[in-house]
Amino acid sequence: QVQVVESGGGLVQAGGSLRLSCAASGFTFTSYWMFWLRQAPGKGLEWVSTISTTGGATYYAESVKGRFTISRDNAKNTLHLQMNSLKSEDTAVYYCASLNKGYWGQGTQVTVSS
Questions:
Q1: What average pLDDT does this structure show over 58-76?
Q2: pLDDT at position 43, please?
């Protein structure tokens, strides 16, 4: 019943931009803070960004601060991550999640070439 589906990943050159989207259903999306996390090849899970229920409060990992922007559209039950000035270090599988509920998507691959 619960679905969290990421999209928008792909191959992009360093310095370029990409916009990830996450479509959620099966739970009250508007009631929960949402998160973006990522896992680079051979590495552990890394927290990227967090957004409050209304979208009024946002938080970012130091590694992406100033380059990434998280947002949400509660009317459409969607979460987004605008990624600018991409670096090769950003290459990873990106996940959308409601950590409080334990709901995760299957991830979308982002590959940044140098």
A1: 98
A2: 96
